[in-house]
Specification:
This protein has 16 helices and 13 strands. It is α/β, with parallel strands linked by helices and 399 residues long. Strands 3-2-1-4-5-7 form a 6-stranded parallel beta sheet. A 3-stranded antiparallel beta sheet has the order 9-10-11. A two-stranded parallel ribbon has the order 6-8. Strand 1, helix 1 and strand 2 form a beta-alpha-beta unit. Helix 1 packs across helix 7, helix 7 packs across helix 8 and helix 8 packs across helix 9. It is elongated and about 85 Å long.
Length: 399
Amino acid sequence: MAGQALSDLRVLEYSDLVSGPYCAKLLADLGADVIKIEAPRIGDSARRRGPFLNDRPGPERSGLFFYLNTNKRGITLNLESKAGQGIFKELIKETDILIEDRLQRAMLSLGLDYDSLREINPELIQTSITPFGQTGPYRDYKAYHLNTYHSGLGYVTPGNAPSLDKEPLKTGGFVGEYASGLSAAVATLAALHWKGKTGAGQFIDVSKQEALINLQRVRAVAYPNSGKVFRRLAVVSGTGGLIECKDGYVMATLPEAHQWQGFAKLLNRPDLADEKYNDTEYRNEHWKEKIAPAISKFASQKTKEELYHKGQELGCPIVPVNSPADVVNSRQLKDRGFLVEADMHGEGKIRYPAAPYKLSVTPWREGTAPILGQHNEDVYRGLGYSKKDILKMSEDGVI
């Protein structure tokens, strides 16, 4: 039986919160041996972010940290100390990939920049994830998720709003950070493929700003190519929008004529299938007095699921606006086993998302996240340190 796809890979992760840890998690879930480095005593910032198991805060009870760090081994190491820097370089000797999220000047000040590390390990792949990348006038700037998200995405968020005059927003959670981590993982696997062909490592410079702009696709290139600026859409629109139904809301997206024709059939309104309604501007003009009342009357008698499935039959893009409870109880996701259960260090059970793919030969693996410093002895004994050495390093604040 085949093992996991990345089971022969050694990864060192020196990053915090979301983007870097998520990048490393994607590799760990596929079998890579990921060693996560955290600061002694305080650990990753995600340990102090909720949600917490049973709403009781604690460094080993964070659902965010747990999800981001499943299947990793965890050690503590103070890279601000000379001893810690020396140990880091020892670890690099046996590392295939380093994932880090420190600014270039920070890594240089520690003597842990790529040029220094590849002298130790010429085949090293180093993936650096920073707010604005390693070059350009913003290369030394720090940023929060709020800053990088507003590299364009905030301008069109929410996609549909009651008023176009409302201020821009950021989506909930860390969507932009996860997107940056995913981009970094793809680039890392590409570099790994190249290394497999040539034996050569390389440095990967990931800009969170650029990763998020890349998500916009059509919006991002509309202005430089045509001078067009995309705006948010009002809820009342000839191309669809939010529709209130019997048990909540659905979202309809109807920019094309064939989609509108399917929608008219859904409403059982042959008069709205007249050719003139294929034009979105015409629909806008007649939306309030004729179309909106017809939609409201019909949808108020239907559930989200009824509208969704009937819309699918008619080639009409309608999706339910789901609550967290709707997602957790989805028959589709339950059938695919998308939510898996794990024990949170004896504190209780937690359910979290599995991988969004299924490999037929080299499967994704379920796992748990490390408690702070859980694998110190395992890793440091592997480097030749004795139990006495490890205790002394802990007392000195090195680990």
